[in-house]
Amino acid sequence: MHKGKQAAALAAIQMVKPDSILGIGTGSTVNIFIEELAKAGVRLEGAVASSESTAALLQQHGYEVLDLNMTGSLDLYIDGADEANHQLQLIKGGGAALTREKIIAAASAQFVCIVDDSKVVDVLGEFPLPVEVIPMARSYVAREIVTLGADPEFREAPRTDNGNQILDCVGMHIDNPEETENIINNISGVVTVGLFAARPADTLLVGYTDGRVEERTAQ
Ligand code: 5RP
What is the pTM of this model? Predict the structure, then answer.
């Protein structure tokens, strides 16, 4: 098991209020979090999942999966990231769940992001920026992204849980994440860009292979 991811996941468990409704994201770090949560015997009223795969893992461990339309706002959302800068702005969507992740983050009072130290960067963009697109708009959006100086690569994978496709944008040096988030979100046919800048994480738990965890909070 990846020690840095596990350290961050274990630290996040301390933030979970028993018998609450928790928002839970997608990815290998979150999967460790769910496994450890179950192992620790933490009970939940239920969880809102950002993907079908997370929902399946939660159910496998006996947690009830709830519809965000029925829960109202959430107190806490826990999710991983592909990159995090020092302002706690993120690139997400390596696991193709970016749109649902952004919705749950928006609907949550607290967003705690769990990463290993390899994910922390000075400038976002070394990780190819995922953009979820409506399938018929794929080529148009790709051409627009080229004008921004990036190289969009079509992700040859099954469609997202929303039935859409992903363009991974290579070669972006994102100096102004909020501006880039706005520009890409405004291209017709884009469902969501995987930049979490306008709504960054509130807390970043950075796990190291020696088990240490650094807690960073938004300034
Ligand atoms: C899924 C995501 C994940 O949080 C991100 O890809 C990190 O994944 P992992 O924990 O496997 O490194 O955004 O859409």
Answer: 0.97
In angstroms, what is the span from residue 177 Cα to ligand 1's centroid? 19
Closest C-alpha among 188, 146, 196 to residue 171? 146
Question: Which numbered atom of ligand 1 lies nearest the CA of 29?
Answer: 10
Tokens for 107?
A: 């609907």
Q: In one letter, which amino acid is 183?
A: I
Per-residue pLDDT of the chain (219 residues; tens, 9 = 90+): 799 999 999 999 999 999 999 999 999 999 999 999 999 999 999 999 999 999 999 999 999 999 999 999 999 999 999 999 999 999 999 999 999 999 999 999 999 999 999 999 999 999 999 999 999 999 999 999 999 999 999 999 889 999 999 999 999 989 999 999 999 999 999 999 999 999 999 999 999 999 999 999 976
- Domains, the chain: 3-120+198-217 (3.40.50.1360), 129-193 (3.30.70.260)
Q: Coil, strand, or helix at residue 156?
A: coil
Strand (E) positions, the chain? Answer: 21-24, 46-49, 74-79, 83-84, 90-91, 108-116, 129-133, 151-154, 165-170, 190-193, 195-196, 203-207, 213-217
Tokens of 110: 């607290």
Report the atom number in ligand 1 closest to the C-alpha of 25: 4
Active site residues: 101
N-term to C-term CA, the chain: 32
